[in-house]
Amino acid sequence: MAVAVDEPTERELRVMPWWLVLVGLLAAVALGWLVLDLLLTEADRASQPDTRATLRIDAIRTGLTVVAGTGGGLALLLAARRQWITERAQRHQESVAARDQAHRDRVQAHAEAVAEAAQRNHDRQSGAAEHDAAERRLTELYTRAVELLGNDSAAVRLGGLHALERLGQDNPGQRPTIAAVLCAYLRMPAPDDEPRETEVRRSAQLVLTRHLHADDAAHWPEITLDLTGARLVGFDAAGCTLVDANFTAATFTGTTTFAGATARGPLRLGKATFGDVTFEGLTADGEVMLDDVRVGGLASFDGAAFTDGLSCRRSGFAGPTSFGRATFGQPTSFDATRFEDAATFQEAAFDGALSMEHTEFGGSASFHSARFTSMALFRWTMFGAEALFDRARFTDAANFGRSRFHGMVSFRDAQFSRPPQVEQARAVVDPGHRWPAGTVVQRLDDEWLLLVDR
What we know:
Elements: H1 18-44, H2 49-149, H3 154-170, H4 175-187, H5 195-209, E1 224-226, E2 231-233, E3 241-246, E4 251-253, E5 255-257, E6 262-264, E7 267-268, E8 273-274, E9 276-278, E10 283-284, E11 288-289, E12 294-295, E13 299-300, E14 305-306, E15 310-311, E16 316-317, E17 321-322, E18 327-328, E19 332-333, E20 338-339, E21 343-344, E22 349-350, E23 354-355, E24 360-361, E25 365-366, E26 371-372, E27 376-377, E28 382-383, E29 387-388, E30 393-394, E31 398-399, E32 404-405, E33 409-410, E34 415-416, E35 425-428, E36 440-443, E37 448-452
Parallel strand pairs: 1-3, 2-4, 3-6, 5-9, 6-10, 7-11, 8-12, 9-13, 10-14, 11-15, 12-16, 13-17, 14-18, 16-20, 17-21, 18-22, 19-23, 20-24, 21-25, 22-26, 23-27, 24-28, 25-29, 26-30, 27-31, 28-32, 29-33, 30-34, 32-35
Antiparallel strand pairs: 35-37, 36-37
Helix pairs in contact: 1-2, 2-3, 3-5, 4-5
């Protein structure tokens, strides 16, 4: 809005009184009369009559001229004053017109500002009304979908699942809440081997996982999964992006897959139970926790990348287990873990320290062409069958102290930056053993050999 600026104050214009003009005229006549009197007096002093008459005529003419000149001067002054008054009146009119125009502009600007403020207020009120209506509608839809999910009929529960999915797809702000509701449903206890409930749970899992593919148009970004203690059937997270996912103490039945998945933040699987499970090609930028896990069937971690390390302590793997070509970026622990069947770490890369203390290998253990960049600890490790470290490379210290080798041991073409520590390690008598160069082996009895540090 324009701000009024005070105009400079003009001096008050006073009206010329009539007597002032009369005084001017009388002064002109008096001046003329005085001049005429002086000149006539001088003319009368002339000695010659003719000269005196001429001088008197000139005196009269001069007196009249003075009167006329004085009157003309007065008239010129009055004309100049009239012109000044006219110009001042013109300036005054222009100033008044400018002030009037400025006032009209201010009034117009104020009216426009009031109208604009009224329009904004109307828009806000309309937007608030629309938002409230949309929120009420959204709440009604959400409440109805959740009610359907709690129905006794499996078919109705399936409808509730799809209603929630549709609601999340159309309303991005509700996706975290909907994902939390589905996770809560899967965490709830379920009847064993109830086919209809199993189908509902499979559908709930599918609703979650199909929106976790980062390259999919239906992707729900930044959705976290809290499936602590959930019972999951044939869980398929292949290719999914998992953000701070928590599967602690979950029960996975059937075949479970995390193949090609990306884990952002920690991936918690401690105390989980699996049938067959695959983590092939998993990429994890946070720590993966598999402490106290139980795997009843095949477990494959081939090609997985554990950038922030892996914790797999006190776990049990009943079937064949493979970490072929897996990479471990930070300290990795398999302490007190038991591999009942064959376990392979062929071509695995341990860029951080590795600890396998008190680990048990019931079947063959293969570390063929594995690379150990940092310390590798195999103290008190029990190898129940053959232990293969052919072409393995140990850049830092390797410690096999007090290990037990119940099968053939091979370190053929293995490379060590320093001699491995083998204090009190024992191995069964077997002609196929291939020990690292310089290893001192003593025979204890007919069954056992004792390894001694040099």
